[in-house]
Amino acid sequence: MHILHIEGGSQLYxxxxxxxxxxxxxxxxxxDNTLICRPDCALVNRAASCATVxxxxxxxxxxxxxxxxxxxxIRHSQPELVHLHSRIGVDxxxxxxxxxxxxxxxxxxxxxxxxxxxxxxxxxxxxDRVIAISAGIAEVLRAHVPPERLRLVRSAVAASEYAQPCDxxxxxxxxxxxxxxxxxxxxxxxIPRKGHQVAIAALAQVLHAQPRWHLLxxxxxxxxxxLRNQIAAVGLAQQIHLCGFRDDLPNLLPCxxxxxxxxxxxxxxxxxxQAAAAGVPIVASRVGxxxxxxxxxxxxxxxxxxxxxxxxxxxxxxxxxPAQRQQLGQAGARLVREEFSVEAMVAGNLAVYRxxxxxxxx
Length: 362
What we know:
Blueprint: E1 2-7, H1 15-28, E2 32-37, H2 43-46, E3 52-55, H3 66-77, E4 81-84, H4 90-100, E5 105-109, H5 117-124, E6 129-132, H6 135-141, E7 150-152, H7 159-162, H8 168-174, E8 182-187, H9 196-209, E9 213-218, H10 224-233, E10 240-244, H11 249-252, E11 258-261, H12 270-277, E12 282-285, H13 290-293, E13 300-303, H14 308-319, H15 322-339, H16 342-361
Parallel strand pairs: 1-2, 1-4, 2-3, 4-5, 5-6, 6-7, 8-9, 8-11, 9-10, 11-12, 12-13
């Protein structure tokens, strides 16, 4: 079996990380893989051991020239099936290219934002199967995708990478924090739908009352200046830190005392699975696929999205209760091992490939 994968992102988090997990798992099962991705994508080097990597300019939703570029590469690679792993033009242009070559095509949907029917309906007709990474996303897709073409394969995390002992002294020194600091983390792009503004507003009173606690925001994005201004306005520049994108999360996450994920929209939340694998309790919004990753009262606490008061109360409850934090964290680690393994994700995708190729062959 030869699968051609197309990923339009550039950073190795979220969807691109899932692609790397999938390529490694498929290669171990004897599946041949070709990967088309942007030349500046982190996958160019990371995926070289498990796929034939073909860097190609992919400029987004308006890049109609993507179609002839993809056609040339797909013809050269001669795959049996095309798997589209992202939006930003790949979902449409990749679908058109695969259809022009009469190849079966799969699209994996990783976000839960609603779509205009007049745009979504024709787009999804390009795809023989649409894979949702959470039941929350599948529910959104039912408005556009017939049930016979919709499949659920949850995203995964390599739990052992994050189930590491915490070297707290080293981490605090690395982050230039006091030796008695206790750590709250947010791992998300600095974009509006991730809800950083809500978290800062919710935690301001708590952090002023408990100066040992520090909020670490890992990620980059367009809101950085706005968030710095908000942090200065609440007088917490010494306790709320914008730490940028980090590639050492397996070392950092085990040292968090709490992860907060105040997203206003979220397909599933890979950072939630990573933190849970590290044994970190979570406070998150009850939105999208998050309730699948965080079980309310079992592995963390869920609050309504955008509710500053509810988020403040949930965080305060756990910050003052280390025994409950430990209990939730241990339950989260079990959940990830049992329900979000990379092996299960790879098997789920492979089952869709076999189903579709079987239909095509018949």
